[in-house]
Design brief:
Elements lengths: L7 E4 L7 H9 L4 E3 L4 H4 L1 H9 L7 E6 L1 E4 L2 E4 L3 H15 L5 E5 L10 H19 L5 E6 L18 E5 L6 H14 L6 E4 L10 H4 L15 H8 L8 E5 L3 H10 L6 H19 L1
Parallel strand pairs: 1-2, 1-10, 2-3, 3-6, 6-7, 7-8, 8-9, 9-10
Antiparallel strand pairs: 4-5
Helix pairs in contact: 4-5, 8-9
Length: 286
């Protein structure tokens, strides 16, 4: 078993929830997993407890609330009572207290700035903060796929989350990166409190990875470094994050990602890349 490395979180979004990927992660020193109330058709928590309940104490477990089942589909809500009920059910289904609960994609209910939306976000954050104080989770945070509507809704009256999870990597887009960094700054979060997700843009088999060579952004790249490894390592700087949640059902893939951590991103080239993204965004706006 390798020494634990907290920089990689095993994401279970599209996972088959097989025990072998969890034991494989532990063998590789990965001791954090991330799931959600609505994953696997709202059965992720019970499945995880059934498949690997005895392993869960060995992991730091994060999950999310914000989507709810209704009429055969999922709907989003920031209603404090529904969030609290989801946290109660989360504890029952997991048969343990999650270490971290994230408010899941709050922008889905907050598309633009209004006083009502600002107040709704404040009530939702307060509900999770109160739940953490009540022992329903170890800490709370926010997970946002598209954080662009959020910075204008955040002010000093909102409770401060322990973690912000956002998209990271070369395909995130400059507007998403800017919004993520603005949120982190507004809440005074350190890079260790900011987590990345979807470092491959949601699909490591996307043809873009055959046309783009992320190794140009690694300062000490060598022949042993694969393109997807370079993309993963680069994602820690776009934006600057302390951890990245990444999903796979293959322990060999996790091993490759761990091996990628020994390389260092080229900060200068990434700065130039961000400038190119800003210029491109400016031309499109014109």
């Amino acid at each position: 078993m390798r020494e634990s490395d907290s920089r990689i979180v095993l994401g279970l979004h599209r996972s088959r929830y097989e025990r072998r990927i969890l034991t494989g992660a532990l063998d590789l020193g990965i001791t954090a997993i991330d799931t959600s109330f609505n994953y696997r058709g709202f059965t992720a928590h019970t499945t995880l407890a059934d498949v690997a309940g005895d392993l869960l104490p060995r992991f730091t477990l994060s999950t999310k609330v914000g989507f709810f089942p209704t009429a055969g589909r999922a709907e989003h809500s920031l209603d404090p009572a529904r969030l609290r009920a989801a946290l109660d059910r989360t504890n029952r289904d997991l048969r343990c207290v999650p270490d971290l609960v994230l408010l899941h994609n709050p922008e889905r209910s907050l598309p633009a700035y209004t006083t009502a939306n600002r107040d709704a976000l404040g009530r939702a954050c307060a509900a999770l903060a109160t739940a953490a104080q009540a022992g329903l989770c170890g800490a709370w945070g926010i997970s946002s796929w598209d954080p662009r509507p959020l910075p204008c809704l955040v002010d000093a009256t909102l409770p401060r989350p322990a973690v912000l999870m956002v998209r990271a990597g070369l395909l995130a887009g400059i507007d998403v990166l800017a919004a993520s960094e603005a949120l982190a700054d507004q809440w005074g979060l350190t890079p260790d409190q900011v987590w990345g997700m979807s470092p491959f843009g949601g699909d490591p088999t996307d043809p873009v990875w055959g046309r783009l060579d992320p190794r140009v952004f690694i300062s000490d790249a060598d022949n042993a470094l694969a393109a997807l490894q370079a993309a993963f390592r680069t994602a820690f700087r776009l934006p600057e994050v302390g951890r990245i949640a990444v999903g796979t059902d293959k322990p060999s893939h996790l091993r490759e990602l761990i091996d990628a951590l020994r390389y260092e991103p080229d900060v200068g080239r990434l700065r130039s890349y961000r400038q190119l993204l800003r210029e491109r965004a400016g031309r499109q706006a014109d």
